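Q: Got a minute? One more chain.
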Amino acid sequence: MSVRFSKVGLIGKYGDPNVSDTLQALIQFLEARNCEVIVDADSAESVASTNTETMPREELAASCDLVIVVGGDGTILNAGRSIAEAGVPLVGVNLGRLGFLADVSPDEMTDELDQILKGEFLDEHRTLLQAHVSRNGETLFESDALNDVVVHKRDIARMIELEVHIDGKLLNNQRSDGLIVSTPTGSTAYALSGGGPLLNPSLNAFVLVPICPHSINNRPFVFDDNSVIEIVVCDSRRNQAQVTCDGQVNFSLEADDRVHIHRKPTRLHLIHPTKYDYFEILRAKMHWGVHPAN
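A: Always. Here it is, folded:
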């Protein structure tokens, strides 16, 4: 069979014993189609084969023309931050519950990947955020985020005080449990539970969602993704805050720290089976049209 992707990288959910069988099946499937296979070094312990080449994730992304991620949406968030810069397309095999990003089921994996390898798939590009924290003019922390960057209180019962600027202009001062800056991809995650709107993934927009604000007038705000956001932790000894990217990367903040957030120039390249339907997934996840049992 002639394939469009000849060098394929595999990334599995770290520390999950259930990923081993699927990774092994993928290796056999891909090698039978004359694909060269490289396994992420952190996933290598889940692979029984000792003959498969392994590489650190960033090197793998630069070397392959397709990356298959085995896990759930959280695994794709983790992998996506690592490989987006290389521009390599990513497809997710879902081992958990129905996901917004991991949309290939293990039961249909070989049939759907056969089609993808032949070039029959849907292309999509997702926006990422870049965040960095500066203290006294020095950058102390940097991270990308596919879902969201959240400035929030840390292990305290009281609210934190934040000053929010967009493109150098003051938006507001707020007292709340924190503030979510979300991409359209992340609008179905933490931002949704905070009362934020659903954004179509193709929109060039971000959304600010306050977490349990002191004032009910502090509402979610959608704005253009060309904007630059700056969040300042106000000078108060009571403030104990941190910034979290995609719920996976954390950094503790001090008074007067500045969190700068903007769109990453490179977008994550996702590919889906031809039957992919974002709205169908949305209906299933949101239980739209499902009538409760009598």
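A: The chain has two domains: 7-126+267-286, 129-263.
Q: Perfect, thanks.
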